[in-house]
Amino acid sequence: METRIRISTSKFPQLTARQYGMENQPTIVLLHGFPADSNLWREVVPLLQDDFRILVSDLPGVGESSFSGDEVSVEALATGIAALLKEQKIEKAIIAGHSMGGYIAFAFAALFPEMVEGVSIIHSSAKADDEEKIKARRKSIELIRKGGKEAFINAMLPPLFAESFRNAHPEVIEQQRRQAMEIADATLIAFYNAMINRPERLDVLRSASFPVQWIIGAQDNLASPEKVLQQTSLANVNFVSVYPDSGHMAMLEDPQELAKDIRAFATYSTARQTEELSA
Ligand code: MLT
């Protein structure tokens, strides 16, 4: 069953999420990346909703969700997600984030560790942007400001997918492209600035009292497998999966495998929590 949740905070005049599954089940929050919306999870939700309560939000600025002012930070976005959970009286959840959603998941874990049962990092990294990346983002912001959103999206989207998937499923890339084009220029710019300004979060990993999951695409051009693998032994408990045929988009390239791995991680993390509480 799908239900709609809608809240309002001073930073977020409207923050919406769709909720699936049963309220008495462990909660998994799925945070989408850039430039996407909650639809990104369309293949994964049906594979998990029988056993978990799933919350899928459109991040503020996307879909019906909005933020006030011109700027937003990963910390503000994480605070909005925490407000959504609190409104639903959800005390703890598995926070799963794809790429930019992963940066928000790290911010959530830094700000609200007591609400975290486990963090699932999907094609993302705890490192901050380096100088080269910041320069490239600033160039893209200029392009979007000059009316070049379509050129920006047409250039950035296809390489997110592994070449073999791209060739076999041009319709999926086209669907993502159309969804990305729905996002306002101001939102794309605000998200890029939020990513530029995000800090490194390796300390979150080193001090994590919760398990951390890493989903890595061997053909990911954005979250480099070599660089991400270096982070996968920093937390105490790490689940690491490398998908040989995936690029940056396992939720569309290999949803069955991703759902299976998230299920295993969420089951372990919630059982561990229950054990700790009863010890
Ligand atoms: C994403 O996939 O969410 C973003 O492209 C991540 C990034 O640009 O760092």
Features of the shown structure:
279 residues, Rossmann fold, binds D-malate, 8 strands, alpha/beta, single chain
Can you put this structure into words, describing what you see?
- Helix content is 44%, strand content 17%.
- The protein has one domain: Rossmann fold (3-Layer(aba) Sandwich), CATH 3.40.50.
- The chain has an eight-stranded mixed sheet with strand order 1-2-4-3-5-6-7-8, sandwiched between helices.
- Helix 2 packs across helix 3 and helix 4 packs across helix 5.
- The longest helix is centred in the last third of the chain and has 24 residues, at 255-278.
- The radius of gyration is 17 Å and the shape is globular.
- The protein has twelve helices and eight strands.
- The model has no long low-confidence stretch (mean pLDDT 96).
- The protein is of the alpha/beta class.
- The structure holds D-malate (MLT).
- D-malate is lined by residues 33-34, 99-100, 195, 222.
- Residues 33-34, 99-100, 195, 222 line the site of D-malate (MLT).
What integer is the average pLDDT?
Answer: 96
Biggest β-sheet: count, sense, barrel?
8 strands, mixed
The radius of gyration is: 17 Å
Share of helical residues: 40-55%
Please state roughly what percent of the residues sit in beta strands, choosing from under 5%, 5-15%, 15-25%, 25-35%, 35-45% or over 45%.
15-25%
The ligands bound in this entry are: D-malate
Order of helices and strands: EEEHEHEHEHHHHHHEHEHH
Count, helices: 12
Task: Give the low-confidence spans.
Answer: none
Arrangement of strands in the largest sheet: 1-2-4-3-5-6-7-8
Please state the structural category.
alpha/beta
Assign the CATH superfamily: Alpha/Beta hydrolase fold, catalytic domain
